Amino acid sequence: GALNDSLKTAEDDEEEEEEEADNSHPLRSMNVFLLGIFLLGTVGGAEMFISSFLSLYFKSVYGKSEAVTGTVMMVTGAVDSGVTAVVGYFTDKNLSRSAVVLIGLAFLVLSTALLSPATLGIQGPSYLIPCAMFGVLEVASGVIQVSILPLLILHDTHRDVTSATERMTRIYNAGFYGGNFFGPIIGGALLDWLNYGGSFAVTTGLLGVVLVVVVVVQCRGGSLLTPRRLESTPAAAAEFESINGRLEVQTTEL
Q1: How confident is the model at residue 209 (pLDDT cuts 50, 70, 90)?
Q2: CA 254 – CA 141 distance, rounded (Å)
Q3: The overall pTM is greater than 0.85
Q4: Residue 233: its pLDDT value, please?
Q5: Is the pLDDT of residue 151 over 90?
Q6: What is the DSSP letter of 27?
Q7: DSSP track, 147-176
């Protein structure tokens, strides 16, 4: 009996060492890479590309001044902050973050496709459709962002919630701000090569690929949007929700 106990203890120690080794390299987890770098980087890049060139787009295509574009961005920013705060509150209760991410991605694809309605042969009020679609884009991006970080934390195998939060916040920042940096650069190159409609179409296609990857991984039995680590005690769950709530407030303010 003592021998079996010692062997079991040794096996447990080995498992803990392997787990700690994996924890030291969080990008080895495909879920963390797809959520934190691929998905979030694409979302951040698309949003920053369109926001950066929105004023030029409205001016050159619709003849609108920078003041009008600034008003549109201010209003959409206020709506985005309000909706994101509400979604963050309800995901802390019982709203599925996985569903929020999927719905947000679907609306991102729709909004970028309709930013240039003439490309799709849609006739309507020349300025209203792109304005509305930019608002949808901002809100969709915001609700995705507020849902991704908690999912990343729950995919981390680190036992300590605070350590997991710190580690996954670094991944979150790397993906989102990396996308913010490269999005306008790549988008500007696309604009030199294509017109606005073509650039938005490429962006739509890229976001569509992201949506398909997320859906396929999830439907094939993966756990991309399904956390593999659930809090086992009420105290741990309360600690996580407290940290998560503070992070979501900070994200909304940013």
Answers
A1: very high
A2: 13
A3: no
A4: 45
A5: no
A6: G
A7: HHHHHHHHH---S-HHHHHHHHHHHHHHHH
